[in-house]
Amino acid sequence: MSKPKRIGILTAGGDCPGLNAAIRGVAKTAIVKYDMEVLGISSGFLGLINKDYINLDESSLSGILTMGGTILGTSREKPFKKKSNLTVDKPKLIRDNYRAMGLDCLVCIGGNGTMKTAARLAKDGLNIIGIPKTIDNDVWGTDQTFGFDSALTIATDAIDRLHSTANSHKRIMVIEIMGHHAGWLALYAGLAGGGDVILIPELDYDTDIITRYLYNRAKKKKAYSIVVVAEGIKKPKKVNSAAQYIANVIEDETGIETRQTILGYIQRGGSPSPMDRLLATGYGAHAVDLIARNDFGKMVTKKGETIDSIPIEEVGGKLRLVPTNHPAIDKALGLDVCFGMKK
To answer: CATH for 6-147+272-314?
Structure first.
């Protein structure tokens, strides 16, 4: 009989709801279905550099499905990033420790940066499987990352709550949603929360169009307005907050009382939604099926309702952005939602 495989799991980059569900999906499938040995690597790629890990068994996975965060910890360590004063060859340390730990495969759970690093490690000869996560939903090659649905629920709930205070004070409320490059979260939360103006990084906007739209709403006796902005929208270089910038412009140009709220890290915290638990679990189980078939160098993906995989080398360095002709944008325009675009 062949020796059971030994695999490692790490979570890297920013935390998001569903990481523990993914860890559980990988580890439990590996242990129960394939009798594999599972090592949990601490603090992302930093744990591989420092050879810091724990053994995972069924008891250590109990109760983590619904937990936010990650029991393994995470970091933004980028082992391939060049630094002039660097005296340690981090990629070599990772390769050496991978072999010293007796790993047959490393499962890397993370976003775009993690997939880029994972692809480099695969190119260096390590057996790698990637699992995509991020609240931004911007990992190329998959229709959805886990973490997005939970963040969407949180952001929409926040917008819902702003409606009542905006109405009470007859003012404009601007809420800033996460998303440096991709506007999926702001677009979907803005639509689900009944936003009147939605600004995303992929679409150029004109502040004159926005302020004229909001002023006309007030003239039509609309009691209040909700403006949803992604943090990564284009703005003056010296401006830190997208919401503050837009709120200042609106109040200065319309004379209507305007307040801003930055939702921030609340979007990444707490228990994952049922959909994210299902997606993370499904991704984890499929990752182990790939390992069992020795089908390495892949990232698990979701296309429609099907969980599949693509070569991880295709993913690194790319972003899944909102297409400017996305059907959701067209439908929103039909509802008189303003994106600040010239018609």
So the answer is: 3.40.50.450
Q: For residue 136, indicate whether it is catalytic.
A: yes
Residue type, 134: T
pTM equals 0.94
pLDDT digits (tens, 9 = 90+) for 178-212: 999 999 999 999 999 999 999 999 999 999 999 99
- Residue 82: what are its φ and ψ, rounded to 5°? -80, 135
Catalytic residue among 15, 136, 149, 276: 136
Record: fold of 151-268? Rossmann fold (3.40.50)
Q: Three-class SS string for 100-155? A: HCCCCEEEEEECHHHHHHHHHHHHCCCCEEEEEECCCCCECCCCCCECHHHHHHHH
Q: CATH 3.40.50.450 residue ranges in the chain? A: 6-147+272-314
